[in-house]
Amino acid sequence: MNDHILEMRSITKTFPGVKALSDVTIQVERGEVHAICGENGAGKSTLMKVLSGVYPHGDYEGQIILEGEEVTFGSIRDSEKAGVVIIHQELALSPYLSIAENIFLGNERKSGLLIDWNATNVQAAELLRRVGLRENPATKIMDIGVGKQQLVEIAKAMSKDVKLLILDEPTAALNDEDSAHLLDLIRGLRDQGVTCIIISHKLNEIRAIANHVTVIRDGQVIETLDLQSGEVSEDRIIKGMVGRELTNRYPERESHIGAEVLRIENWTVHHPQQHDRVVVDHANVVVRAGEVVGIAGLMGAGRTELAMSVFGHSYGSNISGQLYLDGNPIEAKSTGAAIRHGIAYATEDRKKYGLNLIEDIKRNISLAGLPKLAPNGWVDGNRETVVANDYRRSMRIKAPSVAVKTGTLSGGNQQKVVLSKWMFTEPEVLILDEPTRGIDVGAKFEIYGIINQLVDAGKAVIVISSELPELLGICDRIYTLAEGRITGDFPVADATPETLIRYMTLEKD
Ligand SMILES: Nc1ncnc2c1ncn2[C@@H]1O[C@H](COP(=O)(O)OP(=O)(O)OP(=O)(O)O)[C@@H](O)[C@H]1O
Ligand SMILES: [Mg+2]
């Protein structure tokens, strides 16, 4: 008989107008890594929030059996006491506090009534050693990258005697190296007897690390597959997720490349605070009508900085160089000016720059293109709803209506709202920064289709992505960027992952 540490029986959870989970039953074996896969909005995060007491007992139907006994958590605190710890999709560390303070936040090391700083720092240092993070525990969270923040979250979980660790898309924002390190850490935890549940859209990682995968579609369990034999392919998992075979991950496109649309010439950008630090160094980039151009580079190469500085100087200081649109020099020193010139930038960080989560979907979509809806000075609300509904249909945004708050959407569906918003400005040049991060395979295909429609209509698209297969699958041409400099310019036919990586890692001589 299998030893199940967890069983969730017939879980049903509804939100106003949405049945997020319907009669979901899953079983997790003690000491395994159990993956959960499914399209955006399938209900993965909701299921884990039910398990960890974010949605307390009474807020859902069904039963949770942990180590053979029914549990009825009223809060996250309760689940943590039972050894269940969740690391959420959106990291929840306090940027202004130190690593050590974050690890013991709400769980302070005390001697008497006072915080014992000595114990805090010593124990934090030990936990950092266990997760393989070489940082001073006194360093502030805002001074370390997302990869390291993810490790701090795990250290924090380990400080709580975790038996069952839940990771909701832990590697979505990580580069390959940080992801590999994190997966190793999860393997190490499994060897120490910690059971892990991991949600991810990266199916190669799931195959590499998980013992079982449970596939959820539209709030229901489709199947649980045993991955230990190694015979279950990515395509097989995708079939469960989307309900059909997806034979081609990238839609076909015939390219018709026309005249030059945007030329970025000798573009040099300095750090916003450290004015003598060069972040983008004499970059030259051209994109033509009907062309999809990729930018490949490692973390810190300056990809986002290049894009944001071009988009109305929204990043950097002391910017020099020249932009040309259709061959004519332009000035675009504010985002408003950039938008008027037909340049749009859809950001990788939807929380910070892309969306207003307490506004409804329709206003988020219309915001950047509002002048189009307000020819007489006031916004035509009916038209706004019609436009938003068109995007909801074409982008397949999963939401009961366009009047719901954007913050209630699943992560991937929020990303689709960001894309809709920029499409609505009908840009001549659309710059997409990690457009498919956290997006499921089916929706990725749709987004690629939308990019194709744009270029078929003669627009120009620049895509920044950390996933080389994606760039190779959708671009006509790929630039490599290393330490702020453009190091290569490859027609896609001449590009292989190996060449790209070689030019992405070229060092300055
Ligand atoms: N607080 C909420 N209020 C209303 N609806 C919600 C809320 N949270 C989630 N939903 C809805 O429940 C459904 C499931 O969302 P959930 O976040 O669980 O999806 P997910 O599988 O984690 O997707 P993703 O891969 O995009 O993160 C979605 O339709 C979502 O819009
Ligand atoms: Mg989710």
Automatic annotation (TrEMBL):
Location of the ABC transporter domain: 6-243, 262-508
Entry's localization field: Cell membrane
Chief location of this protein within or outside the cell: membrane
Entry keyword set: ATP-binding, Cell membrane, Membrane, Nucleotide-binding, Repeat, Sugar transport, Translocase, Transport
CDD domains (alphabetical): ABC_Carb_Monos_I (cd03216), ABC_Carb_Monos_II (cd03215)
One annotated GO molecular function: ATP binding
Membrane topology reported for the UniProt record: Peripheral membrane protein
Short name of one Pfam family: ABC_tran
UniProt keyword Protein transport, yes or no: no
Keyword Membrane recorded: yes
Single GO cellular component term: plasma membrane
Domain of life where this protein originates: Bacteria
Protein name: ATP-binding cassette domain-containing protein
Species of provenance: Tessaracoccus antarcticus
